[in-house]
């Protein structure tokens, strides 16, 4: 049986990623993804967007953003057909090692209050909610 392969995403993956996130991602309460936004991200940090593939099919993703100061995770998603087989954990283990090597001391992720599935994975991986903080946002443009 084939083994899952982890690799950084490239420009050739952009359309497949957008389709993958529509099917697999948490898509509520956030700006929609666009090809330009994904390309900008790949240009800014070519190692941050990691995918897991099996037999050439993208089955999971995560964006591990490191700006030299803080480490943020976005777009953790595994295809519904491939869930509960450890791929989410594989992605998290991989990016946590990368953040540690870069010198990050802490990692954070935005998790919707009602996303019980997402919360179960973050908890299982050792993350906990911070009750004394709220995210403050301002849309640009
Ligand atoms: C969240 C998500 C990425 C998890 O991916 P996954 O590959 O299924 O997760 P894993 O198989 O690595 O699970 C790791 C652990 O998380 C917990 N977990 C995962 N799915 C769970 C479920 N349906 N119910 C309860 N616990 C669950 C378990 O503790 C699991 O370990 P175990 O299987 O040994 O018990 C996937 O469900 C998903 O894409 N959900 C939709 C998008 C989303 O909500 N992303 C998070 C945004 S904040």
UniProtKB/TrEMBL annotation:
Q: Which GO terms describe its molecular function?
A: acyltransferase activity
Give the enzyme's main class according to its UniProt record, as a single word: transferase
Quote the Pfam families the UniProt record gives. Answer: Acetyltransf_1
Gene3D superfamilies, from UniProt?
3.40.630.30
Please list the residue ranges annotated as the N-acetyltransferase domain. 4-141
Enzyme Commission number(s)? 2.3.1.-
| Superkingdom of origin organism | Bacteria
Q: What is this protein called?
A: GNAT family N-acetyltransferase
Which InterPro entries does the annotation name? Acyl_CoA_acyltransferase, Bact_Acetyltransf, GNAT_dom
Task: Keywords in alphabetical order, please.
Answer: Acyltransferase, Transferase
């Amino acid at each position: 049986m084939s083994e899952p392969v982890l690799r950084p995403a490239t420009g050739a993956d952009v359309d497949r990623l957008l389709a993958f996130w529509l099917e697999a991602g948490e898509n509520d309460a956030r700006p929609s993804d666009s090809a330009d936004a994904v390309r900008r991200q790949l240009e800014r940090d070519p190692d941050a967007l990691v995918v897991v593939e099996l037999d050439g099919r993208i089955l999971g993703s995560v964006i591990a953003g490191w700006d030299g100061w803080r480490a943020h995770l976005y777009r953790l998603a595994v295809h519904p057909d491939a869930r509960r087989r450890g791929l989410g954990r594989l992605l998290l283990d991989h990016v946590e090692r990368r953040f540690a090597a870069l010198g990050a001391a802490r990692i954070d992720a935005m998790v919707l209050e009602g996303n019980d599935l997402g919360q179960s994975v973050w908890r299982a991986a050792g993350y906990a909610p911070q009750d004394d903080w709220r995210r403050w946002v301002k849309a640009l443009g």
